[in-house]
Amino acid sequence: MRLDVWLDVSCLFKTRSEAQGACKGGKVEVNGQAGKPHRMVRTGDQIELSRPFGAKQSVVIVGLAERSIPKADARRLYEDRTPRPTPDQIASRRAERVFRSAQAAAGRPDTQQRRAVRRLRGY
């Protein structure tokens, strides 16, 4: 079975094209080697995925499925061997989420704020 298809069927990525992009971008390794989208995988292969913010996810293929299956059944296709995050990592992720949400809430400046910025810059 193709790697990109298995990643999609196992619900590790939302779509097959997203899985292909991760493979082409070097975010997926199979048994310690770069995972190309067309690479054939079988049970027992170890896959390491690079996730956002430097996190790594390590899974071992336990089963194969040719077509999409419910997410609860898809979780049975792999064994997750990712170590649990430390309390420090959890705290830093939480702080980062709060910081990002505060930035998003600020949004774009309105007209008065833009005019004030222009006055300060001297335009």
- How many extended strands? 5
Relative helix content: 40-55%
Major beta-sheet overview: 5 strands, antiparallel
Number of domains: 2
User: How many helices?
Assistant: 5
Major sheet strand order: 2-1-3-4-5
What is the overall shape? Answer: elongated
How do the SSEs run, as a string of H and E? HHEEEEHEHH
Let me know the CATH homologous superfamily of the largest domain.
RNA-binding S4 domain
Provide the β-strand percentage band.
Answer: 15-25%
Radius of gyration: 21 Å
Termini separation (Å)? 61 Å
The first-level CATH class name of the largest domain? Alpha Beta
CATH architecture of the largest domain: Roll
Q: Would you give the CATH topology of the largest domain?
A: Structural Genomics Hypothetical 15.5 Kd Protein In mrcA-pckA Intergenic Region, Chain A
Describe this entry's structure for a reader.
By secondary structure, the protein is α+β, with helices and mostly antiparallel strands. The protein has 2 domains: 1-83, RNA-binding S4 domain (Structural Genomics Hypothetical 15.5 Kd Protein In mrcA-pckA Intergenic Region, Chain A, Roll); 84-123. Helices cover 41% and strands 15% of the residues. The protein has 5 helices and 5 strands, in the order ααββββαβαα. It has a 5-stranded antiparallel β-sheet. A hairpin with a 2-residue loop joins strand 1 (28-30) and strand 2. Helix 1 crosses helix 2 (16-24). The longest helix has 20 residues, at 87-106. The model has no long low-confidence stretch (mean pLDDT 89).
